[in-house]
Design a protein that fits this description.
This protein has one domain: Carbamate kinase (3-Layer(aba) Sandwich). It contains nine helices and nine strands. The two termini are 29 Å apart.
Length: 232
């Protein structure tokens, strides 16, 4: 019997200092790993897919080389390499922490298994993901820069990738329970700093104007993008 799958996002603002480039919050990452270990020990029918945000790692070179434009000039080829390297470095830190807690965590690198067209996922090579899940491993993916047929490259946020994986697996008979987003606050905040109790397609247009601007490095659209992807 297949286990229920929960997808967990570890927000970039939670696991890095987004105002300082390449600055992980190791103690928080380790605490999250311990909590994940406890949850899996308590529920043996639970299978996880984890996605970490990029925080101050890939966002910095992505801004420097204007990688949101794609690859339009020679120096952006080098920018592509730097963003891919930075994203994978933070992912390795997260996986390392999970391994320290005796969890069977393994990196699932988007730039190696996904290609896009006009910033939309076009090709997904799924064998690695299926094999990891069948073996009971924990795939740990992340927001990444990928090759794009039209733009040369594009940046896919962790939200886009987790939503894609959830729908992809659901269509193939996997039981997707939920996607959990972990950030610095208990939820999405309104203009007074209070948590919005519930966001739906009905009230989204009314409240979207209050989404605050991201502090520090962020090329994936901040909170507005996160909520849009969660509702899609």
């Amino acid at each position: 019997m297949r286990k229920k799958i929960i997808l967990i996002k570890l927000g970039g603002s939670l696991i890095t200092d987004k105002q300082k480039s390449f600055t992980p919050k190791i103690s928080i990452i380790d605490d999250l790993s311990r909590q994940i270990k406890e949850a899996l020990d308590e529920d043996k029918n639970l299978q996880l897919i984890i996605g970490n945000g990029g925080g101050s790692f890939p966002h910095y070179p992505a801004l420097k080389y204007k990688m949101n434009e794609g690859i339009r000039e020679e120096k952006q080829k080098f920018g592509f390499c730097l963003v891919q390297d930075a994203a994978s470095r933070l992912n390795r830190i997260v996986v390392e922490s999970l391994l320290k807690n005796n969890l069977n965590a393994v990196s699932l690198n988007p730039s190696s298994i996904i290609t896009a067209k006009n910033e939309k996922i076009k090709n997904f090579f799924s064998y690695s993901l299926f094999s990891m899940l069948n073996l009971g491993l924990i795939p740990v993916t992340y927001g990444d820069i990928v090759l794009d047929e039209k733009k040369g490259s594009c940046i896919l946020s962790t939200e886009i990738i987790l939503n894609f994986l959830a729908l992809f697996l659901k269509r193939r008979g996997f039981e997707i329970d939920k996607i959990i987003h972990n950030g610095l606050t208990y939820g999405v905040l309104d203009e007074k700093g209070k948590t919005i109790e519930k966001i739906t397609l009905k009230n989204f247009s009314r409240i979207k104007k209050i989404f605050y601007q991201t502090f520090g490095f962020d090329v994936t659209g901040g909170m507005l993008h996160k909520v849009k992807e969660s509702l899609s």
